[in-house]
Design goal:
With 191 residues, this protein is of the alpha+beta class. The chain is 28% helix and 30% strand. The termini are far apart.
Length: 191
């Protein structure tokens, strides 16, 4: 009986303990990988939304014919109608960007007076935490004044700062709650 082959109880317990440690390590690694994936996907979603909105706003503000109004979270411009001559001498349209709730709206009408109430137009992007618009005059001083030409106390350029998160709500404790801030300074070409 001294020549029997097999495992003792102590050897089996050591193997089970080692397998338990290895499985705990693998589970932790998988959980960390899942959290990293969620954070990355949320960051991409927030960045894409912010980038699209900022690009469109910058392009339209840069080509604006006139600035009608500017506040910290809303801007109204008159721009060339793309279906017309395409420049400021032909037909124009009024365009307003405004934050209402967590959505950034882009409204368009043939006149400034014809713009719909904020929040009833087309949603440009959702998941917006803050939209900050700051106007600067010819000498770089902060202003909200509007006029026909770039001058002192008349807005010549606008800083746009947009902070977004992913559109779909995630639990507040989730690592997928990622905020993205994008910013740009736009100088008017036609004002």
């Amino acid at each position: 009986m001294t020549n029997e082959r097999g495992f003792t109880l102590a050897e089996l317990l050591v193997v089970v303990a080692l397998l338990g440690l290895i499985m705990a390590g693998v589970a932790t690694l998988q959980q960390q990988g899942q959290q990293a994936y969620l954070m990355g996907a949320a960051r991409v979603d927030a960045q894409q939304n912010a980038r699209v909105a900022l690009t469109l706003m910058s392009r339209e503000l840069r080509a604006a014919c006139t600035l009608s109004s500017l506040s910290s979270s809303s801007v109204t411009i008159t721009a060339a109608d793309p279906s017309g001559t395409g420049d400021c001498t032909g037909a124009t349209v009024a365009i307003r960007y405004a934050l209402s709730g967590s959505s950034l709206y882009r409204d368009q009408a043939t006149t400034v007076g014809g713009l719909p109430a904020v929040g009833s137009g087309a949603v440009l992007i959702g998941g917006v935490n803050t939209l900050t618009l700051t106007g600067y005059d010819l000498v770089g001083a902060t202003t909200t004044g509007v006029g026909a030409a770039c001058a002192t106390n008349v807005v010549c350029s606008i800083d746009i700062q947009l902070q977004t998160t992913q559109e779909q709500a995630v639990a507040s404790y989730s690592p997928a709650n990622v905020q993205t801030t994008v910013a740009d300074r736009v100088r008017f070409r036609n004002i």
